[in-house]
Specification:
416 residues, mainly alpha, Proton glutamate symport protein
């Protein structure tokens, strides 16, 4: 059975047990079972959920360092990227910023986590710490990378990892042993992450059961609004932002270009994997859209590694949604921190199994939000994963046309 079906079963079981064990909800046909369920299961729900969250926390720091260092190192010597490289990076950073901005705008406008019973109190002190744009800028550079890792300060750790990866590409043979070491660490952390992700159905069961026991079923109205918020944000970015960039900068007609890469988009939606779709994306861009292979062969593999527009948008919405569920109003400075962390964490997302889940934990940790809210997000993650993967691949494909135009390539008539 595929993992997402197991997660759905865990979610359904968690809802059922939660309704049965909630002291304020009475189901006449099952009243005889309510007391035994409370006695036998409820004491274990909290510890199981806590263990799952601690496993996620355990891998965050080594996973950030290894995946981001390798994400940058795979690009090659950054000094030799030339015109195509610089323009590709500029496009990816610009569109990722735009996607996160759209996500934050949607979640603040719709406010899907507002209303109903808050998930809890006792929010970590980090959330209450005053965060300003100035403190974020100065705090991005760590004075001690080991210390910020131990303290769980995510943004400076990401910046250090980016710089380390960039430096390792410039020192030739001396850097290769360390790159190989990080590659091994990255492979080990991916395997460990895969093991932890296999426990997700049990973790979802425990976390959702705990929420329903304490708050009742009203939380699912918030969850429906959250799904609508993410899908609306992805639609705005995929159907408005990227087509405008494609039209005005790439010089291609969005409807014709989308038709040319449609097979890749549908495959991305069905598989929820940018990497698995990469060969088909290259074929569509080159043969159907007429983009030169010298452009697509650089832009698309790099995009599958570091460009995650849909994932970054989803993370920003999910982080603010979880804050709203806990009754926390994030300040402007804290939302800027979400903005930067979601953007930079996307660099290492592609090499991570269930990338959205793990990088969401990174974003939540950056602003000190409780990771327990992830259980609610996971309940509907499969559909949203399919949607955001399609946007990721669409962003990569648009990038090919934009970079081709910026480097002097002639836009093929078939997509004009």
């Amino acid at each position: 059975m595929k993992l997402h079906w197991k997660i759905l079963i865990g979610m359904a079981a968690g809802v059922f047990i939660g309704l049965l064990a909630n002291p304020d909800i009475h189901i006449p046909a099952l009243s005889l079972f309510a007391s035994p369920v409370r006695a036998a299961i409820v004491p274990f729900v909290g510890p199981i959920g806590t263990l799952f969250i601690r496993l996620l926390k355990m891998i965050i720091v080594p996973l950030i360092v290894a995946s981001i260092v390798m994400g940058v190192a795979r690009v090659g010597d950054i000094r030799r990227l030339g015109g195509i490289g610089s323009k590709t990076f500029f496009y990816y950073v610009l569109t990722t910023f735009a996607s996160v901005a759209v996500g934050l705008a949607m979640v603040n406008l719709i406010r899907p986590g507002v209303g109903g019973t808050p998930l809890g109190t006792g929010v970590p002190d980090a959330v209450h710490t005053r965060v300003t744009v100035q403190s974020i800028l100065t705090g991005m550079i760590p004075d001690n990378p080991i210390a910020v890792a131990a303290q769980g300060k995510i943004l400076p750790l990401i910046v250090f990892s980016l710089l380390l990866g960039a430096v390792l590409t410039t020192i030739g043979d001396k850097g290769r042993p360390l790159i190989h070491w990080f590659d091994s660490l990255n492979a080990a952390m991916m395997k460990l992450t895969d093991w932890i992700i296999r426990l997700t159905p049990m973790g979802v069961f425990a976390l959702i059961a705990g929420v329903v026991i304490s708050t009742g079923p009203g939380i699912f109205a918030n969850l429906g609004k959250y799904m609508a918020t993410v899908i609306t944000g992805l639609a705005v970015h995929g159907l408005i932002t990227l087509p405008l960039v494609l039209w005005f900068i790439g010089g291609a007609k969005p409807t014709r270009y989308a038709g040319a890469v449609a097979p890749a988009l549908t495959t991305a939606f069905s598989t929820a994997s940018s990497s698995a779709t990469l060969p088909l994306t290259m074929e569509c861009v080159e043969k159907n859209a007429g983009i030169e292979p010298r452009v697509s062969s650089f832009v698309l593999p790099l995009g599958a590694t570091i460009n995650m527009d849909g994932t970054a948008l989803y993370e920003s919405v999910a982080a603010v949604f979880i804050a709203q569920l806990y009754g926390i109003d994030l300040s402007l400075g804290q939302q800027v921190l979400v903005f930067l962390t979601a953007t930079l964490a996307a660099v290492g997302a592609a090499g991570i199994p269930s990338a959205g889940l793990v990088t969401l934990a990174i974003v939540l940790g950056a602003v000190g939000l409780p990771l327990d809210g992830i259980g609610m997000i996971l309940a509907v993650d499969r559909l949203l994963d399919m949607c955001r993967t399609a946007v990721n691949v669409w962003g990569d494909a648009v990038g090919c046309a934009v970079v081709a135009r910026l480097t002097g390539e002639i836009v093929p008539d078939r997509v004009k």
